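Tip: read the tokens left to right.
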């Protein structure tokens, strides 16, 4: 069943915004919200009332995680070159360890986080001969020195320094 109402004027409250029509009410509270199904955190709690039914949820773009420990990421690009995707293009942070694949070889090592700067330790890398290892080589150069962490859209993370940039998307 589709219910259509004209968008009402917003009521600005202390905690957020309220939209009211005879059949639909939306209350947006600016307070962090967890959806209860993943570890994503959103900036708003949202309550929607339709007739006599109430729905509670979260709203806004997912926020950056408080820590990168125990997170997994898909590689979107290395130095502007799109990654083909799949499990062969991934980065994981487990405790103080990083493991990554940028093609057919894997790399693992430690890392230290200081604010928005990540310093990888010496990374061990497998040495299988692959048809095209350029993305792996570029990623290894980036990860051979400290990188700056830049968050966007809550689920994107860019690792960058003078050697280039690795763009990641959070895997849940």
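Filled-in amino acids:
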């Amino acid at each position: 069943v589709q219910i259509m109402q004209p968008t009402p004027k917003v009521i600005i409250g202390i905690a957020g915004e309220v939209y009211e029509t005879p059949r639909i009410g939306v209350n947006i509270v600016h307070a962090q919200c967890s959806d209860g199904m993943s570890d994503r955190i959103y900036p708003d709690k949202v309550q929607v009332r339709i007739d006599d039914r109430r729905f509670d949820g979260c709203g806004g773009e997912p926020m950056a995680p408080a820590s990168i420990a125990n997170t997994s990421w898909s590689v979107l690009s290395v130095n502007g070159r799109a990654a083909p995707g799949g499990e062969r293009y991934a980065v994981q942070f487990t405790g103080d360890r990083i493991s990554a694949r940028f093609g057919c070889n894997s790399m693992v090592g430690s890392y230290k986080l200081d604010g928005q700067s990540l310093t990888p330790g010496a990374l061990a890398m497998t040495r299988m001969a692959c048809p095209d290892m350029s993305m792996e080589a570029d990623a290894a150069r980036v990860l051979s020195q400290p990188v700056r962490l830049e968050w966007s859209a809550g689920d994107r993370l860019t690792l960058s320094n003078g050697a280039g940039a690795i763009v990641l998307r959070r895997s849940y």
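The helical segments are 134-142. DSSP finds one helix and 17 strands in the chain.
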